[in-house]
Structures are given as C-alpha cells and as structure tokens.
Amino acid sequence: MPTQTIPQPIGRFAPSPTGELHLGSLTTALASFCHIKSIGGQWLLRIEDTDTERCDRQFTEQILMDLEVLGLHWDGDVIYQSERIDIYNDYLSGALRPLTYACQCSRKDLERYWAHEEEKHHHNEDINPLQPNRVRYPRHCVNASLDRQQHKLRIQLPDYHIGFNDGIQGIQWDNPQQTLGDMVVRRQDGMINYILAASIDDGLQKVTHIMRGLDILPMTTAQISILQAAHLPAIDHWYHLPLICNPDGQKLSKQNLAQPIDTRDPSRLITTALQLLQQPAVDKDTPANMLKQAIAQWDNTPLQGKQQLNSPD
Ligand code: GLU
Ligand code: ZN
Fold this sequence. Notes:
The chain is 33% helix and 16% strand. It is of the alpha/beta class.
C-alpha cells in the first residue's frame, strides 16, 4: 500500500505590537504553542505591524524577549508584516483585483446616506420592516472605476453563509457580507487591513492550524473567502479560544489597560496561564521543562464551548 504523507502541522502566534503582552495574549501564545507542539507541529511567529500609527518597535522587542524568557521558542525566522507590504499589494493588483474596487466615500458621506435611509425607513416601516444595515457598505463606488492608487480599496465579500468547524467553539457559520460588508482592505494612505495581511500570510506560510482569541472569530469567514479568492491553501483547523476576563467579566485588552505580564518569575506565569487554560498542573521547574510537561498533557476539551475564562486577579 502506498504510504500517505501527512503534512506537518503548522501553527502560529501573530501578535500586533500595539502594547506589551498581557495575560490574555500570553494565554493565546501558550495555548497555540502547546497545542501545535502536542501534535508534532511547528510554531511560527509573525509580527502584525502594518498599522504604523499604533505599532511600536519597542513593543515588538519586548514581546520577543518575553517569549524567550518563557521558553516559547518559535520555529524559523520571525516574519514582520511591515516588510511585506509589496506582497499584499501584489495580491491586491493580482488575484484579488476582480473582487476589489476603489471607493471615495468619506465617513461623512456614508453617515449622511444612512441618516437619509433611516429617515425613509421610519416613514415606510410597514413596507420594509428591516432596519437599514449600517455595516453593509452600499456599494456606491462598485462600478465607478475610480483610480485604485488614489483611493481606499474595498473587497466584495460573499453574500452567502460560509461555515467552518471550530475545534473549540463548534460548528460556525456566517454571511460575511451581512457582518462586515465590503470591508476596506487598503486605506487611502496605503495601510493594509490586518485580516487581509493575516490571510495572505497564513496562506503563504502554509499554516494548517489557527488558534487565536475569540475576538477574531467574526473575521474568520472573511479570511476563508480571501484565502479562496487569492488561490491560497485553505486552513483546515480553526480554534477560537475563550477570552480572558478580569473578575468583573471585562475582557483583558490593551484598551482597558490590562497589566503587562511580569516575566521576572516566568515559572509562576506559566503556572497561572495553564491554570487559566484549565490544563492539568505541571511541576514547578524551568520554563522549558514546564512547557515540555504542558505539551505532553495538553488537552483542548476543558476549553470547548467556553467563551470566557476568568482571571483570578
Ligand atoms: N494580530 C492579531 C491580534 O493581535 C491576531 C490575528 C490572528 O491571530 O489571526 O489581535
Ligand atoms: Zn464609495
């Protein structure tokens, strides 16, 4: 019988360096690392720094140092999205060209339009009970053939349901056009939208397993559509991790000023993060040995169906 070679699993951690790692981003790093290593895979590190206004080189350095101290060693070279803008632009003018179009509608134009539509709706409620949907860009510019270099670019996302199996959240489906509309993929100033960059890189890096926070789940059907339109390999395995919340149930994020992790005691941090992730305890040891044990014991089951995990402090 011919033997079938199963491609090596490839996972990744893709932080945006808009701040230091906090307990939420650390658990994402740790979970994706342990999970992919537990199935014999590689763990790549990609710095998602296309947003030059919000990202900072100093945060990148700090993130790399924190991962090193914690024993979270990545495979291969770090990829920086800020160095790959030409690649994304090549996709926009190549495979993705038929789906993308230039748009000159300002936020003000759209606001005026929606206000007018809502006014109309108010008068005709019995004819059309559906509220105008402010997310769906009304496609004013879709056939205008405006200069692509002069204006922002939007992508036409499919207007049907797309489904995927999430290894933590179960079967998911969504209509990306309803949820996101024709989203902007490149701003007028040239800044590349992060889900476009992430989709292209996950495809080019041949990522097979994506484990990330639940906050990105609403983007996943858009990512699936972009990968398909760009003729890049589909992602076979999705896992959206429950969000880490503080005791008041608030999501830990940079926006609500989650404390940066303190790596002076990396072993303690690993213990805390594993506990949060509902994993069996590991013996206190060097980070490397603790991770070895955590990998051997890794189990997604306690996370399944959960949308939130509460941090002790
Ligand atoms: N860069 C994103 C973030 O830090 C993660 C994107 C992803 O994992 O796909 O929130
Ligand atoms: Zn427009």
